[in-house]
Amino acid sequence: MKKVLFALIAVFALSSTYAQTLEELKAEQAPKKDSIAAIQARVDALQSKIDALPGWKKGAFGTIGANLSGFSNWYAQGTPNNASGNIGVTINGFANLKQEKFFWRNAANVNLGWVKFDDKDDSTDDDSFKEATDVFTISSLYGRNLTKTMAISALGEYRTTILNNFNDPGYLDLGIGATWTPIQDLVVVIHPLNYNFVFADNDAVFDSSFGAKIVADYTRKIGKVNFKSNFSTFQSYKDGDLSNWTWINSFGYTIWNGIGLGFEFGLRDNKQEALNYELTRADGDTNATFDSIDNELQTYWLFGLNYAF
């Protein structure tokens, strides 16, 4: 009985000592966390001042997503012998020049993806990787400052695919107007004089026209987080069916040595592309028109490893 009592007292004493030590360590840790947060705030403030200085600012971050698998005699599924894969790569880069009287902003977004599903029991099955995601956009914006937040500007923006159907369609926007920079990382472009050149084999669907170009871009790095959101729209003066918009959002979180996690998703509305797809797909409606097609929202997303340059 004495031995049991002694053991209980020892366990209680040990638990009390552990609890006391844990509380002491937590109490010692708390002010250090506050100090780290204060230091990071000062570092971020200094970085903001550095970013505001004249000169070139360059950077890039990207995401790689990959999923490869293989099955052999896995009878529970419909295709017991197969090899499949999904690979995606996205890159966001920029090179911006800021001077007292003018600025020049250049950006690129590339998102490429491949998929594969090889049924090893089907000798006619295609065992190669096929193009899945294909997005390519570059832009260049030049502006002469009128005030600290307003400038007259000229923009060139080109969008297409590069893995498949390069420049079919391809879109080139050239226009002039005004650029508003209400805060350091936000750029809003409003160009009422813009021509949207459309390059495509199917001239009956794709058509160039005059219109208004509006772009809103927010790019920022906060500590370990890279963030970019770009919204670009063209509103045709000729016909609303020739208008389009694209919104792409990219996130990157650095964990170690520039490596981390990344996520990107994009949205697009383009009635010309929707009609062209309906007319050219194997079981499509060959009599489809802008009024008859169901112009559904276009989307894509990619999640995977991220690297910040």
What report would you give on this structure?
The protein is α+β, with helices and mostly antiparallel strands and 309 residues long. The chain is built from two helices and twelve strands. The protein has a twelve-stranded antiparallel β-barrel. A hairpin with a 7-residue loop joins strand 9 and strand 10 (244-256). The longest helix is centred in the first third of the chain and has 51 residues, at 2-52.
Pick out its properties.
single chain; 309 residues; alpha+beta; 12-stranded antiparallel β-barrel; flat
Describe how the helices and strands are arranged.
Elements (H helix, E strand, L loop, with lengths): L1 H51 L2 E17 L10 E17 L3 E18 L10 E16 L4 E11 L9 E11 L5 E14 L9 E14 L2 E12 L7 E13 L2 E12 H10 L17 E11 L1
Antiparallel strand pairs: 1-2, 1-12, 2-3, 3-4, 4-5, 5-6, 6-7, 7-8, 8-9, 9-10, 10-11, 11-12
Gist of the model:
By secondary structure, the protein is an alpha+beta fold.
In round numbers, the mean pLDDT is 85
The total count of helices amounts to: 2
Q: Based on Cα principal axes, name the global outline.
A: flat
How does the helix and strand content classify structurally?
alpha+beta
Task: Give the number of DSSP strands.
Answer: 12
Order of SSEs: HEEEEEEEEEEEHE
Largest sheet: 12 strands, antiparallel, barrel
Indicate the percent of residues in helices: 10-25%
Low-confidence stretches: none
| Multimerization status | single chain
**Radius of gyration from the alpha-carbon trace, in angstroms:** 27 Å
Largest sheet, order of strands side by side? 1-2-3-4-5-6-7-8-9-10-11-12
Q: How much of the sequence is in beta strands? A: over 45%
| Terminal CA distance | 68 Å
